[in-house]
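cache lookup: miss for this entity combination. No prior model stored, computing from scratch. Input as submitted by user K.M.:
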Amino acid sequence: MTPAQKEKVSGTFSRNGPSGAAQKRCLTPFPGRYVGTGNGPALQVIDIRHPSYAALIEPDTAFWALVRRDKLAEAALGGELVEVYRKKAARFAEEMRTLRFGLTPSAVYFNPTERCNLNCTYCYIPEGMRRTGRHMSRPKLLSALEILKRYFSPPGTDRRLVAGEAPTTTMLRTVPDPGVRASGAARRRKPAPPPKPQIIFHGAEPLLNREAVFAGIEQYAGDFRFGIQTNATLLDDSALAFLREHDVSVGISLDAPTAAVADRTRSNWEGRGVHRQVLDAMDRLRGYPGWAVLATISTANLRHLGSLVEFLHAREVPTCLLNILRTTLARSRQVKPADADAARCFLAALERTHDLYRRTGRKLVVGNFANILLAILAPTARRLMCDISPCGGGRCFFAVTPSGDLFPCSEFIGLGEFCGGNLFRDPIPAVLESPAFRLVTGRRIEQIEPCRHCAIRHFCGAPCPAEAHQLHGSMHATGAFCEFYEEQVRYAFRLIADGRAGDFLWDGWDEGLDDVLDFSM
Amino acid sequence: MAVKNPPKKAKSVVACRKSCKAKGTGLSHYILMDKKAKK
């Protein structure tokens, strides 16, 4: 309780203040009488570059409203909207607290090898590792999965991970604290069984160590949901048949529809492109529900994003990611686009997906942008945890290397000082609390300039800590892109204003979600 | 099949929010599939 709240509860405020229902409202996080001063709601106005609407945002609770420009002063200074917000503010604040600080790991990015058969310009794994690094042996990989299985086992079972570690009562899945109250509808629904934790084989190129990876999937199929992110060059018929049979999600990497563009950044050690092989794999994946294409945006493909989404749509790709490259390692900075160029081309590609949807009735969802829409429309429903602060690294997921070293995220694997311990030697809960992990999980947007003043700080999250650390020598700095994220959020609000947001999300995206605010006037 | 958005009434103020139990687990390199598509 803030000093101001205590003051009001103790009656000091009651001499001149409200009573009854109005007094009850004072127990919200914003007991101040006026917007914008003292303990009043700190609403910020942002221009979303829409002809009719601007946005009012209370950043800490991620509350927003779209307000007609000619009604902006009236809405921002008080009245019905502010009163509605005051009633919801405590709940929204609790949602954000849970999302930012109340989650625990439910996914592991598992690198079964350091090696890769490609030498992509923007890779965050150092070249030496990729060229001559180690595989994790099959017995080691199975042992690692056994340790992870025990770690993720529900409380009450034997969760001693390594010799000498006492069981704890720490919640081990990504779940909210029990203190977060469910809505009425949520309480009435039959509780769903807890989802299995996820293991994503990641790289480097995981299929270089195929025999061990497939043995792990086979043995632990009942314990984890498995996924694999691959460059697709080794995705032959037998590998695909295995992955389909075991319901493994498959992410493949492709940056452009033509070899001439894609091969600029993605080629093997001899400099030969692999575009044809990726297209062959895509042909064989067609119709499989659990696959996606990941493209990395750089100067090499920036002006081809529109043709890329057309190509992916024609190939019936259900979901893609158009991720801006990370400039964690210096080599990737050679192909870093300017923010404004990246934003312009990215938003044009999104519009292109919408044209295709309107023409055909079939969506190509751009998952990373869909996540920003979700962050606005339903913050707790977001699926990706890069664009929130603290990011998901080290708290929602962590990464395992072939030697068993643990890092907050794959992005840190080339940065030895961020190793928090070893899966085979150290208890996972202790690693999660290690100084190395704390550096990442303790990176809060309130400590970063200019983010701490930014209205959209909880729709962006100032990614990525690894990139910020390498670029600026500090965790308390932005990553390589700022305006790129600003423009995405503005565009998302314009879509909401125009009633188009649902067209950019998966069908049924709001099934199982509760309406906690639905206000218009 | 073409998809049309319903006609919009020009409201003065629009605010909405949905909620569920938080499950955020992914990073930007990978995304597990749409829950409907993933059988």
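stored under new cache key. Confidence is low (pLDDT under 50) at residues 1-27, 158-184 of chain A.
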